[in-house]
Amino acid sequence: MSDMMYFDHAATTPVHPRVIEAMTPYLTQVFGNPSSVHGAGRQARQALERARDQIAAFMDADPQSLIFTSGGTEADNMAIIGGAMAQAERGRHIITSQIEHHAVLHACEYLERNGFEVTYLPVDETGMVQLSDLKQAVREDTVLVSIMYGNNEVGTIQPIEEIGAFLRERGIIFHTDAVQAFGVLPVQVRQLPVDMLSVSAHKINGPKGVGALYLAKKIPISPIAHGGSQERKRRAGTENLAGIVGFAEATKVVAEEAEERISKYKQMRAAMLGVWQEEGIRYHVNGHPEQVLPHILNVSFLGVHTETMLMNLDLVQIAAASGSACTSGSLELSHVLQAMHLGDEIENSAIRFSFGITNTVEEARLAAHSVAKIARRLARDR
């Protein structure tokens, strides 16, 4: 993939060389089961707990509050289904937003089929949830609210501090899907009014197939996987030791490079927009103008259909996306853009560029010129 300009880091990221190096011994030499009592098992257990301590330190969390999962989707499902089931006696009403990742939306739909009621909050044209809408939606039987930290398609950062503070007063459990924000925003759980928070390794140059759910003390949860007593009886199954070690190393790399990365992403964003302005093509930036994740740029090239633009970009070796990677294989219109009510022209022409450690500002400029050329040609051909 060396010649490809990869601008789809919100979908997944390349594994950092330091992460591969950290993982290798746990794939070849230290391969014991962390639950085994012999020496090999104890060695594996020590590595597992060391990794837990490192990730917890990065998030400013108590290590015991982290539950390792197979990724963000499982963490979201565990929080929503496990959190709701544990409180079913208290109430069966849940609140989320219309722009959540499908890992949250489909978990909520599953609960609806099992006797729960879900309110899906609308968003404004910038993709932001309004606290006033949440206040109106809260009922006596509301037991759980799940609102994402930063949106994976348009990058809008949600007002989770205000939402969390309001829910704390009401004694309602608050979960946030921080998968896309983790590593680009400071996710410090002791400073955030959240009870549960989902993260994933492969969005921060760690391996795929590993994530974690932060679960605050005394927050009830029913396990959704049944079997052994791993993760303090909260998530059965032999831990993905090499993956967890890789996850820990990825957080260490992020901690060292975060400021530099964020400043680079902002420069890339500005460079792309600058080129399109100079070239005089018709475009519209989707998402909040200020409260936005620095590595996500969602733009509609007016008069050019999303799929047509993506195919043409692929032909010139530029990888971008139409939105969430979980749905971009299908031709469905983005549920996020639909919820923002931007109108057909904008919704049908949106492209997401997302930046990462392999990109340079010069490359962003080059890609933007290619995009402008394609947009101009396709608009002319219509």
Automatic annotation (TrEMBL):
Enzyme class of the recorded protein, top EC level: transferase
Matches recorded under InterPro entries: Aminotrans_V_dom, Aminotrans_V_PyrdxlP_BS, Cysteine_dSase, PyrdxlP-dep_Trfase, PyrdxlP-dep_Trfase_major, PyrdxlP-dep_Trfase_small
Organism superkingdom: Bacteria
One of the record's GO molecular function terms: iron-sulfur cluster binding
Keyword match Glycoprotein: no
Cofactor: pyridoxal 5'-phosphate
EC number: 2.8.1.7
Gene3D superfamilies, sorted: 1.10.260.50, Aspartate Aminotransferase, domain 1, Type I PLP-dependent aspartate aminotransferase-like (Major domain)
Domain annotation Aminotransferase class V: ranges: 5-363
Catalytic activity line of the entry: (sulfur carrier)-H + L-cysteine = (sulfur carrier)-SH + L-alanine
Alphabetized UniProt keyword annotations: Iron, Iron-sulfur, Metal-binding, Pyridoxal phosphate, Transferase
Keyword Transferase among UniProt keywords: yes
Similarity comment: Belongs to the class-V pyridoxal-phosphate-dependent aminotransferase family. NifS/IscS subfamily.
Name this protein carries in UniProt: cysteine desulfurase
